[in-house]
Specification:
Elements (H helix, E strand, L loop, with lengths): L2 H4 L1 E2 L3 E2 L5 H11 L3 E6 L2 E7 H7 L9 H8 L15 E2 L4 H11 L3 E5 L5 E6 H12 L5 E9 L4 H11 L4 E8 L4 E9 L5 H9 L3 E8 L1
Parallel strand pairs: 2-3, 5-6
Antiparallel strand pairs: 1-7, 3-4, 6-7, 8-10, 8-11, 9-10
């Protein structure tokens, strides 16, 4: 799956010449903690509610509401925004987006086109939804975890065991374990009968360490 198919299109943004007061009202309306800044279709920065608080008068100020509004109207978004923005291209894969978020400890990424135009935003929640969809968890799955050696032919033999029993494998995931061994996660349709398969796997030296029905 690609970022372009999972992102939220046309995210709400402000221009760099917007006032702090305008930006603050917009953020409160949509309950945002961060806002993207876009000029002429190009992403030029971002700011957060903390940035607004940093320049706003203290709650203990003796200024009147009119004076506070007047002050905030003199400060523009460009005065508080951060110009360095971590982004992802719309043609990137979901895995790439997830890795960028993980490496940079962020919960969302602006999505840009090849010409640098802002076309969407993708969040950790979007990626989690994609994971659940790809795994087919909502429809129900039987999940087996096996410990296997890292050697040629393991996947072929295991898939043949399931095929000989007429059981369709929905998906495979391999995870490096320890001592040159792997955890192999096998997902099957929820109605699959696996007792006989587990016995055969055990006889062939493939230890089933966990089974569970999900969804």
């Amino acid at each position: 799956m690609f970022v372009a198919t999972r992102m939220t299109k046309h995210p709400i943004s402000v221009t760099s010449d917007a006032t702090i007061q305008q930006a603050d009202r917009l953020m409160k309306k949509y309950k945002f903690h961060r806002m993207l800044v876009v000029d002429d279709g190009k992403l030029v920065g971002y700011f957060s509610d903390r940035d607004i608080m940093r320049v706003a008068p203290s709650p203990a100020t003796t200024l009147s509401k009119f004076e506070i509004r007047s002050l905030l109207d003199k400060i523009s978004v460009r005065d508080i925004m951060h110009e360095k923005v971590i982004t992802v291209n719309e043609n990137a894969t979901i895995e790439e987006a997830a890795l960028i978020m993980y490496n940079n400890k962020v919960g969302g990424l602006p999505v840009i086109s090849d010409v640098g135009a802002l076309v969407g935003i993708i969040t950790a929640t979007d990626i989690l939804k994609t994971f659940i969809k790809v795994m087919g968890l909502i429809g129900g799955k039987t999940r087996l975890t096996l410990e296997v050696d890292n050697k040629v032919g393991v996947m072929a033999e295991i898939t043949k065991i399931f095929a000989d029993k007429g059981i369709n494998i929905d998906s495979f995931i391999t995870c490096r374990h320890k001592n040159n061994r792997y955890e192999l996660v096998v997902r099957l349709d929820d109605h699959a009968e696996i007792d006989d398969v587990k016995k055969i796997l055990d006889e062939r030296g493939y230890k089933v360490v966990h089974t569970v029905k999900i969804g």
